[in-house]
Amino acid sequence: MNAPAPRLFAFDNTYVRDLENFYVRCKPTPASKPSLIRLNTSLASELGSDPARLAAPEGVEALAGNRIPEGAEPIAQAYAGHQFGGFSPQLGDGRALLLGEVIDIHGRRCDIAFKGSGRTPFSRNGDGKCALGPALREYIISEAMHALGIPTTRSLAVVATGDMVRRDRALPGAVLTRVAASHVRVGTFEYFAAHQGPEQVKRLADYVIARHYPELVASGQPYLDLLAGVAERQALLVARWLGVGFIHGVMNTDNMTISGETIDYGPCAFMEAYDPATVFSSIDHHGRYAYGNQADIAQWNLARLAESLLVLIDADTDRAVARATDVLTAFPDRVAAHWLAVMRAKLGLDESGEASDDRQLAEDFLSLLQAARLDFTNAFRALHEAATGNPLPLQALFGDSAGFDAWRTRWQARQPDHPDTLLTAMQRANPWVIARNHRVEEALAAAVERFDLAPFERLLAVLQNPYAARPDDIAYTEPAPAEVTACYQTFCGT
Q1: Nearest to 494 by CA among 263, 272, 292
Q2: Are the C-beta atoms of residues 69 and 5 closer than 8 Å to each other?
Q3: Residue 380: per-residue pLDDT
């Protein structure tokens, strides 16, 4: 099928044009009876598209893969990856297709891609399809992350295909349309380093520099600076994940973008009771990707990127290793610096204090949360309430804790006055609501089991304004019952 569709996007496809042999041309599998489940109208407008045209029958056909939009050049990208520490030399887009690139209204180049549009040459034994539940999960959590101000891929649309997909049982199928700064990953570099050698790695690196790090084009050491630039973006990203209790769940190298965006919302989740060892992923049996391990894993992944770039960094292997090692060795300090900035904002502190003292103050508060098994999000929000003159929520959480009373005295002494600018920064650092796991699951169950999208739409509306307290939505701030959280698992599936 794949009949041509009208001009829905102004495509300008540099990946196809500049990187021959880095992909396989492929067409999506047509859906038998596509229907629009959710369209992100504001994102469509940012991409320079007309939401009304996308929601019309021909637009829905295009978002399902039945029609190829004018100017699109569907491809499956090649990449490898270390998965749970073991190298898989060929992964690639097994259930995804890159339609092409557009320049949005802000002048940013964006990929538009499908997930769940059928088999590709990289599908291995998979069917290339996606179930409705995982597609809606990625939509709601990626948009929640965007509302939190965290760099992320975004979701443009979910279209039900009218076909069933077989998992542990038959489930309704869907196609998710995802938008990203690009889909180039650490695993992309690993693939070409392993299979095609330095010249192809150089082509990829030059492309990435031109697209994502144009300030490095004139650098005297562009490939070392590229490694440093990716490391800096990842340090900031991980620090911001930690600031909202986000656990990625599957930080394989094929799920680390060179652009510094969060990608892949399969086994991710949000921590409730503070515990650095928190893991929800059903496949993370040893806690490799636990909340508190994410900075270490990011550094490990960056080492794999460095290995791919060594031949470009310096012709002398020993010098290349030494220079790359300097970047990698500095990474924990960069994460720590960004984490301290996040925590100062969460605690309502300016930058006048000693870094070591403020870091200890933050760590001691987290220790109190862990000892009392208090909710991470709600505890910091109660701290904000106390800073604005309402100590009751904080007192309700900690009760007559002598340890907390001593900490609070130190906190108040550190910043006796909280000017409006600090209080505003504190509010913006402490969300009132997050995508709580049980609320997400309730919304997905209603959509998949009863085709009732009202809970999904309601939750999405709440999450799109996460920093403003709204009494009518107080139920969305409540943690799940402990017995629910104790057995909660997330799964790969998008």
Answers
A1: 263
A2: yes
A3: 98
Let me know: does 329 contact 368? Beta carbons within 8 Å: no
pTM: 0.96
326-342 pLDDT, tens digit each: 999 999 999 999 999 99
Q: Which residues contact 313 (CB under 8 A, 6 or more apart)?
A: 221, 223, 224, 227, 306, 320, 323, 324
Helices 420-429 & 376-387, crossing angle to 10 degrees?
A: 170
Banded pLDDT at 490 (limits 50, 70, 90)? confident
Strand stretches in 6-144, DSSP E: 23-25, 35-39, 67-69, 75-77, 81-83, 86-88, 96-103, 109-115, 130-131
CA distance to 53, 72, 479, 488, 494, per residue, from 485 (Å):
42, 43, 9, 5, 22
How far is 227 from 229, CA to CA, in rounded Å? Answer: 5
435-463 residue pLDDT tens: 999 999 999 999 999 999 999 999 999 99
CA distance 98 to 15: 10
- DSSP, collapsed to helix, strand or coil, labels residue 183 as coil
- Please state, in angstroms and rounded to a whole number, the distance separating the CA atoms of residues 434 and 473: 12
Q: Are 319 and 337 in contact (CB under 8 A)?
A: no
What DSSP character marks residue 272? -
| Helices and strands (DSSP H and E) totals, the chain | 18, 14
- DSSP secondary structure letter of residue 181: S
Residue whose C-alpha is closest to residue 8's, from 152, 96, 112: 112
Q: What confidence category does residue 371 fall into, taking pLDDT thresholds of 50, 70 and 90?
A: very high
The pLDDT of residue 482 is 84
From the candidates 254, 284, 358, 375, which is the catalytic residue? 254
Calpha distance 404→366 (Å, rounded): 11
Q: What is the pLDDT of residue 494?
A: 46
- 279: Cα separation from own chain's centroid: 17
**Catalytic residue check, 357:** no
How crowded is the C-beta side of 390, counted as CA atoms within 13 Å? Answer: 7
The residues spanned by each domain of the chain are 3-186, 349-417
Q: Counting every residue, how long is the chain?
A: 494
